[in-house]
């Protein structure tokens, strides 16, 4: 593996079966090789509008404000929190993994007063506990991760939107790991702001963060609009509203850029927009329901295969994300050595985890373009082979057989 700095990029053909990123759909890569346009070119602004329309359908929302933040998923998270929260605001965060901690950290940087509702890693937060905290704290915002890839748990979102409305709080969800893979009907769930990224179930590269914003959240965001020379624009209460601390992530400015006003803010990341637009087209052409079913089926097949090997799954399986599966690393097995053999012998990447779960679990994803039968079977077979080589006793061939049986059963029942 000696590279010369003048060599052309020629990465290995690796199968990315970790918790993200995953391999991009070839159509997305093709779209991203198209020529650039100026950001105010009518052809390009038409692509921007089409991208907004496509993502409204992906998010299952009527929200006018549905667009892209340039940057990785956390750019979306940061834009949402910094544009809504001002110093001293209360926020309630259901916290059940690493990305709940990220929401906490960003909210603290905004100067917000954070109340977390904690669940042990591997479980989710009870709705009653969220309601109790919201009733007590009366927050401006409730911020919740949908699928926390660090623990592979998906927080049930039903009921939270209703609680937020009852207590006049806005409701934000980080759906980076689930959008396009698990059902997320934004309007039906009463979520005010959702952000995501392309590199999980949407099957694109990281670097663009789709976002959708309700009118009620937009009102809050515009009320904090940057005010020139202390004069509030007509119709806005922004006269003495505190300016937000970021220019790049000032949603009011970004929304002015994505509106008919086309007020210059940043230069829209042309290539990422091409990619994001293609991701949405692929998702919608397959159909949201078909897509969720495909991910759920792969999850059942993966679970059957792993259990057939005698492995123990991590956490409360009834609340597992359908696109990622956590596996306890068996006693006496070196988890990092197994990951290295998967990569070196089979060109397959699987994940480990963070914090309290570091060295304790592997995480195997099957999402987006990679969430397909043969990838599930190949990954299970490879893991079985590697584990056997590490001295783990298991019945040969049982993993892929068990997964195949799940697929066969779904075909006969269909
Ligand atoms: C993967 C993931 C992210 C990643 O953020 P990036 O900035 O794209 O690295 C954020 N939130 C959740 C829930 C994730 O699973």
TrEMBL record:
Keywords: Aminotransferase, Pyridoxal phosphate, Transferase. InterPro entries: Aminotrans_V_dom (IPR000192), PyrdxlP-dep_Trfase (IPR015424), PyrdxlP-dep_Trfase_major (IPR015421), PyrdxlP-dep_Trfase_small (IPR015422), SP_NH2Trfase/AEP_transaminase (IPR024169). Its cofactor is pyridoxal 5'-phosphate. Signal peptide: none annotated. GO terms for molecular function: alanine-glyoxylate transaminase activity; L-serine-pyruvate transaminase activity. Residues 39-329 form the Aminotransferase class V domain. Substrate binds at residue 363. Transmembrane segments: none annotated. The modification N6-(pyridoxal phosphate)lysine is found at residue 200. The keyword Transferase applies. GO terms for biological process: glycine biosynthetic process, by transamination of glyoxylate. Belongs to the class-V pyridoxal-phosphate-dependent aminotransferase family. PANTHER family: ALANINE--GLYOXYLATE AMINOTRANSFERASE (PTHR21152:SF40), AMINOTRANSFERASE CLASS V (PTHR21152). This is Aminotransferase class V-fold PLP-dependent enzyme.
């Amino acid at each position: 593996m000696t590279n010369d700095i003048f060599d052309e990029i020629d990465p290995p053909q690796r199968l990315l079966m970790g918790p993200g990123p995953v391999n991009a759909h070839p159509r997305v890569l093709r779209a991203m090789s198209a020529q650039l346009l100026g950001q105010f070119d009518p052809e390009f602004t038409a692509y921007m509008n089409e991208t907004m329309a496509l993502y409204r359908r992906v998010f299952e929302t009527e929200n006018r404000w549905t667009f892209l933040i340039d940057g990785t998923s956390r750019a979306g998270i940061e834009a949402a929190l910094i544009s809504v929260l001002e110093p001293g605001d209360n926020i309630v965060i259901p916290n059940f993994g690493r990305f709940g901690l990220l929401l906490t950290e960003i909210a603290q940087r905004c100067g917000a007063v954070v109340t977390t509702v904690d669940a042990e890693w591997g479980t989710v937060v009870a709705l009653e506990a969220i309601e109790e905290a919201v009733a007590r704290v009366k927050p401006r915002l409730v911020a919740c991760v949908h699928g926390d890839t660090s623990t592979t748990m998906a927080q049930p979102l039903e009921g939270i939107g209703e609680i937020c409305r009852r207590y006049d709080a806005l409701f934000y969800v980080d759906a980076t790991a689930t959008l396009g893979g698990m059902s997320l009907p934004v309007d039906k769930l009463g979520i005010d702001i959702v952000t995501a990224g392309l590199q999980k179930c949407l099957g694109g590269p990281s670097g663009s963060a789709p976002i959708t914003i309700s009118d009620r959240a937009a009102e809050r965001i515009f009320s904090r609009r940057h005010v020139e020379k202390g004069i509030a624009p007509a119709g806005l209460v922004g006269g003495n509203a505190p300016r937000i601390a970021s220019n790049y992530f000032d949603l009011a400015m970004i929304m002015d850029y994505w509106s008919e006003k086309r007020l210059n803010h940043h230069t829209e990341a042309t290539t990422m927009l091409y990619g994001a637009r293609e991701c949405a087209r692929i998702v919608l052409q397959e159909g949201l329901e078909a897509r969720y079913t495909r991910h759920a089926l792969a999850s059942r097949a993966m679970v059957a295969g792993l259990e057939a090997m005698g492995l123990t799954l991590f956490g409360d399986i009834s609340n597992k994300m359908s696109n990622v599966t956590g596996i306890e690393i068996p006693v006496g097995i070196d988890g990092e050595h197994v990951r290295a053999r998967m990569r070196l012998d089979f060109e397959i990447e699987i994940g480990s985890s963070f914090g309290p779960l570091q060295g304790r679990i592997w995480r195997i994803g099957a999402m987006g373009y990679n969430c397909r039968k043969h990838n599930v079977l190949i990954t299970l077979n490879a893991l079985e082979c590697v584990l056997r080589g590490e001295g783990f006793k298991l019945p040969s061939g049982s993993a892929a057989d068990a997964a195949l049986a799940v697929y066969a059963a779904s075909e006969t029942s269909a």
